[in-house]
Amino acid sequence: MNNKKGMILLSLGSLVCLTVGFVLGQVVQAVTAMPGSADDPLVSQSYVEKIVGERTAAIQTQLDELKASVNNGGTTTPTTPPTNNGGTTTTPNNNGNTTTSNNNGNTTTTTKTITINAESLNVRGGAGTTYAKVGSVKKGEKYNLLETKAGTDGNWYKIKLSDGKEGWISAQYVKVN
Questions:
Q1: Contact assessment for residue 166 and residue 159, using Cβ atoms and an 8 Å cutoff
Q2: Is 91 helix (H, G, I), strand (E, B) or coil?
Q3: What is the value of pTM for the model shown?
């Protein structure tokens, strides 16, 4: 008889443990975040792609600037600058400006400005549509032209936004003044 009581107690104990384990499992699962949800403590793939894209664009811009600096010594000058009979020399450089010098030692730099012709235009981290968006500009706004670069999808102009960020816009949607 004692063996029968022991078996019944063992069976009841197992059943209680199984029930308690099942209930606790459900509670723990309900309290924790589901994988892939907004509450998931792991970083989502879209977040990683966004951050990697932004940092890659910033590094690519720095790399492009360094390449231009190494290849051009910081400026692009013609091998024989055009001169006129008045002794004035005009030298374009890679930042969209023109430096004019005369025989008197006077030098002036003319800064080109651009006017946005599109209703809204993305400003990108590099000279191309594959770079991350760093801002936007609107029709009629004017900016100083900092640099010009040829990209795989057309020419691009570097500008400085009002918040201090620098970025690139497609040349086909602006007018150079």
A1: yes
A2: strand
A3: 0.42
